């Protein structure tokens, strides 16, 4: 924060913007100071939170800083502004051909009269704007890389749920004939091998993103330092080509996130066994709604860029829960999710179903969520925190099984008789109702 205030108070502040509270700052300095700040960041002066980064340029302040640079130049001693050693006049023009400073008489000489000459301050300002455009591009790539890095780190932190998945599958096999031991062993070995391979991919992806972030930050700071140079020094550096090439080069080949997906294999006899407990579910409290808070936060986590304004997207949403609560026994039902874009299915208790907000922090729900972001879907269970399941999204019927006494809720892909995920060793203390929420494009 100290660095940002120092730069913003300089007469060389080159990109003044006004944030929501009305205070103005140098945009590159503000970006760097907010890089490690908690979200949402706060104004360095009044500490008011700022919820968006698309700030408007402060035209008045930008003009004043430009005029201040010109006025400062007029007060520099003759040696500082560079006198022409031939005509003993101040160099005021920049020759586009030889890329050097000239006085008036030199610009009219036979050697230079056919060349294009411009005022030094205007050429410097044009160059400075080109540097700023590069900075905007580099900063955009930096933030994109950081978002991807955060997601890759999150995936690595939750990758231990593979152990949980092995427990889920083992629990299913324990329920059937012991002759399937060989199939179970082969299934678990395949998951273990896939898990190690995908985790290595995630590690390599994270390392690549860390390195790319370092390179992007370095180029961004070089561009910012170049922008802060006085006009004459800026034009005499003659490093434009090298710096611009490096800036554009570092933005190429951005490392892309790994989209992990574990394979799912059929479990012999799974659907036949569950179908013995098939029940008819009568839905109650059916209603059409705009949205429920279940998806808040998930969409912003999934979208690679800023999530769209969901109010502008037309969706048909359906929400309902079963009229019959379950207090004991084993129960199985199926839902067709083929035409749904986002959906939530499972069981919940009456206290959660009766809430207006239906947040996942309240407890009392055992749900499987399918949320679409960009061009892919991710499955979550309503654990605390939400637990992603990196398995293929079911495209037909999803089966939901409740074993009240054993404290188990399982979700299965009916089409290929495979397990999606399970809640294991739960402690049910109240009646559970089937729950369904779906969105249709």
Automatic annotation (TrEMBL):
Domain annotation RING-type: ranges: 7-47
Domain B box-type: 79-120
Keyword terms of this UniProt record: Metal-binding, Zinc, Zinc-finger
Transcription recorded as keyword: no
Domain of life: Eukaryota
Pfam (any one): SPRY
PROSITE patterns, per database record: B302_SPRY, PROKAR_LIPOPROTEIN, ZF_BBOX, ZF_RING_1, ZF_RING_2
B30.2/SPRY domain span: 261-441
Cross-referenced SMART domains: SPRY
Stored Gene3D superfamilies: 2.60.120.920, Classic Zinc Finger, Zinc/RING finger domain, C3HC4 (zinc finger)
MF (Gene Ontology): zinc ion binding
InterPro entries membership: B30.2/SPRY, B30.2/SPRY_sf, Butyrophylin_SPRY, ConA-like_dom_sf, SPRY_dom, TRIM/RBCC, Znf_B-box, Znf_RING
Listed name of the protein: Tripartite motif containing 77
Native source species: Rhinolophus ferrumequinum (Greater horseshoe bat)
């Amino acid at each position: 924060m100290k660095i940002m205030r120092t730069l913003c108070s300089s007469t060389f502040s080159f990109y003044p913007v006004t944030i929501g509270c009305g205070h103005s700052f140098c945009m590159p300095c503000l970006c760097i100071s907010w890089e490690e700040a908690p979200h949402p960041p706060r104004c360095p002066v009044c500490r008011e939170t700022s919820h968006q980064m698309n700030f408007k340029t402060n035209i008045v302040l930008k003009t004043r800083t430009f005029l201040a640079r010109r006025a400062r130049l007029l007060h520099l001693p003759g040696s500082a502004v560079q006198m022409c050693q031939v005509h003993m006049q101040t160099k005021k023009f920049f020759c586009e051909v030889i890329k050097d400073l000239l006085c008036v008489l030199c610009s009219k000489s036979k050697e230079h009269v056919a060349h294009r000459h411009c005022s030094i301050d205007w050429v410097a300002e044009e160059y400075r704007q080109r540097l700023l455009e590069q900075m905007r591009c580099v900063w955009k790539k930096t933030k994109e890389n950081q978002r991807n890095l955060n997601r890759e780190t999150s995936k690595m932190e939750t990758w231990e749920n593979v152990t949980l998945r092995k427990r889920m599958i083992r629990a299913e096999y324990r329920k059937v004939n012991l002759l399937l031991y060989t199939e179970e062993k082969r299934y678990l070995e395949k998951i273990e091998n896939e898990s190690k391979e995908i985790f290595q991919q995630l590690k390599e992806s994270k390392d690549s993103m860390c390195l790319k972030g370092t390179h992007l930050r370095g180029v961004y700071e070089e561009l910012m330092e170049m922008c802060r140079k006085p006009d004459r020094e800026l034009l005499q550096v003659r490093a434009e080509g090298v710096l611009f090439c490096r800036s554009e080069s570092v933005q190429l080949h951005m490392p892309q996130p790994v989209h992990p997906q574990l394979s799912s294999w059929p479990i012999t006899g799974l659907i036949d066994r569950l179908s013995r407990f098939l029940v008819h579910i009568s839905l109650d409290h059916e209603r059409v709604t705009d949205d429920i808070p279940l998806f808040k936060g998930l969409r912003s986590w999934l979208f690679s860029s800023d999530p769209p304004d969901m109010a502008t997207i037309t969706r048909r949403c359906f929400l309902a829960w079963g009229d019959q609560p379950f207090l004991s026994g084993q129960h199985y039902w199926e839902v067709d999710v083929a035409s749904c874009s986002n959906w939530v299915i499972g069981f919940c208790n009456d206290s959660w179903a009766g809430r207006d907000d239906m947040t996942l922090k309240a407890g009392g729900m055992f749900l499987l969520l399918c949320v679409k972001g960009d061009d892919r879907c991710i499955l979550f269970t309503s654990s605390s925190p939400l637990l992603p399941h990196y398995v293929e999204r079911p495209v037909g019927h999803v089966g939901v099984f409740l074993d009240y006494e054993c404290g188990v809720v399982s979700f299965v892909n009916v089409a290929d008789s495979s397990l999606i995920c399970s809640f294991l060793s739960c402690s049910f203390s109240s009646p559970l109702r089937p729950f369904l929420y779906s969105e249709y494009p």
